[in-house]
Amino acid sequence: MVDKKTLASFPGSFKKLFGYLMDETKDLKVLFHDFEDGAEGFELVAARFCYNKKSLDCISFWTWSELLVALKECQDLLSASDSSLILEKILDCVVTRLASLVVASPCTCSSENTRISWWFEDLLVLKIDLIDKVIRMSISRNIDHAMISKFLLCYQRSRFLTATPTEKCKIMEVMINLLSLLDRSSFSCKLLFGILRVVSSLKISSHHKSILENLIGSQLDRATIDFLLVPSSRRKGYVYDVNLVLRLVKAFYIEGRCFVLASRLRKVASLVDSYLVEVAADCHLSPSKFAALVLVLPDDARESHDRLFQAIDIYLEVHGGLCEAKKMKICSALNYAKLSTDALKHLARNPKFPSRIAIQVFINQQSKLENLFEDKTHLVDTFSSSVFAEESIDEKVSSDQVLVYAKRINLPNKAEHLDVQLQAMQCTITELEKYCGIMQTQIGNIPRTRLSSLGNNARFLPKLCS
Q: Hey, what's the torsion of the CAs at 81, 86, 91, 92, to 10 degrees?
């Protein structure tokens, strides 16, 4: 039974229909058949018309418990897309309390984190649509983003205990949207990869997957190799999800726009090299995918290419039947100038690599040798006449002999001669490095009186010995 005054307060047809009956003293009984949402829905409609703005002002004086009860009632009566002046007012009061921490914590624990996050459990009873409204309003009020991200994780873990697969998808999509609104420093890379593992078993939209991967990409330099070893689906064949890593690296560049700090880039390069070593032994990993991983980073991302060479060596060992063209595509990322001497020796003698690679290594080593010859000749010409006359005669003879040998070196026509040539060059380089070290020691022992006799040539001394 509905009160006559309540019915009379309704505008339009209700007021016209029941207005003339208001003077009667007997009770008025009205029956509504098939009213949407039943009696509770009618009460909500009545509340919307009967409560004016002055009546809503008193909500500000409600206790925290009363606000929570009102929120629970609103979510039971309102649909997900519905809006209500009463609901907005209650939400405003709840967020205002959270922002100012006016409401005392019901717990007695002295821990700072507990005193700040006591409200977590109180809001876990709310559905994800209301949580979305609360968090968005909290972000607009500058409530601590780190605390918000912790609450979202707590909410997800709690609600997943009883949620259906459809509800889980909804929770994760809203959670991803909300995290994208927070500062990147307010949540860890570990949290994001944890979310990635959860959604991998759910059918969330590709749009939300892209948002999540962009968030991970923005923090890829904070990741570890364990995070990247995400198993691929069985239909793809290979062990780890290589496509995911490729997308994450590209997202790293997108988030950095046109400028990425060199230190961050090197961390990502080190991470990718470790990943390459892990996946290289996968016999199902196609050459095109491995080549994409090898070439995903620019040359300047790596200070050394030794780990990259190690990964390629492992891959060619496992995939022995590759043609020369595919091998060259994979090896095109190698910068021989950034390989150590040991790596170059291994590469030159390695039959798994294309023969053209060994020739390129030979040319690179010959160039290094010629540079050392030029440096040595410059040192000899500078000091032989005044400081090291006697010592330089014997060394210069040796130098001339080595130089004549180097000039006689021609690019061999047969790949089997490369190893012998390379060993001879390495011995020569070692001798030259030893000679330079002796000269630097002798220069350091020169008395100041003898240095002064060098005249203007003395100013070149620090540069030559540096």
A: 130
Q: Which two tokens stand for residue 266?
A: 């090197």
Question: How does DSSP assign 405-451, residue by residue?
Answer: HHHH----SSGGGHHHHHHHHHHHHHHHHHHHHHHHHHHHT--HHHH
pTM: 0.68
Write down the pLDDT at residue 35. Answer: 62
Taking CA atoms, 129 is separated from 22, 98, 126, 462, in Å, by 41, 19, 8, 71
DSSP letters for 8-30:
HTS-THHHHHHGGGTT--S----
Q: What angle do CA 171, 173, 175 make, to 5 degrees?
A: 65
DSSP state letters, 154-216:
HHHHHHTTT--HHHHHHHHHHHHHHHTTS-GGGS-HHHHHHHHHHHTTS---HHHHHHHHHHH
d(CA 193, CA 83): 35
| Average pLDDT, rounded, for the chain | 76
Q: Which pLDDT belongs to residue 389? A: 44
What is the b/e burial string over 149-184, where b = at least 16 CB atoms within 10 angstroms of the residue's CB? bbbbbebbeebeeeeeeeebbbbbbbbbebbeebee
Look up residue 58 and give its DSSP letter: G
Residue whose entry in the numeric block shows the structure tokens 């130098």:
399
Give, rounded to a whole angstrom, the gap between the first and last alpha carbons of the chain.
99
pLDDT of residue 42: 63
DSSP result, 304-353: --HHHHHHHHHHHHH-TT--HHHHHHHHTT--GGGS-HHHHHHHHT-TTS
